[in-house]
Design goal:
This protein is mainly alpha-helical. It has 9 helices and no strands.
Amino acid sequence: LSWSEALLLGVFPPIGLEINDGEGHPSSSHQTLKGTSKWATSLENLLEDPEGVKRFREFLKKEFSEENVLFWLACEEFKKTQGKKQMQEKAKEIYMTFLSSKASSQVNVEGQSRLSETILEAPHPLMFQKLQDQIFNLMKYDSYSRFLKSDIFLNHKKSEEQEENSPEAQTAAKRASRIYNT
């Protein structure tokens, strides 16, 4: 399975680091904003959260534009690639998956036709940056605002709020409050 196939199947590792509590569970309690509240502040915050990326992908899939976020994620991962051979391989995968006229998940970007396969011979970490920026802006000014009004986002927000207001969450908060206020 190539990394682009893994990305398309949704088994690609998420961007960013996950902070864990002492028991190895994901922890976001140390942040002032979390989950949907943080996602609603900016597309950047949404893309930093693996759960946010998952929900945004669900939404974009319904809008038939999931390739935009997949391309953006692939470019982010590409920037971290070490070694010329690995860069050439990944650059070719990105080109064949998202940019070529025969791409399986073609993104719609300006200047795409000027990007030929010859550029793949001498890859560099920022070679897709302009195209990635175009896709980011397309998502930011188009899909992202619709995502914030979508059932996927609103239902996730509602379930988060129900979780926060549950008796178990309130009891844990009271215990924590007693511990820190003694």
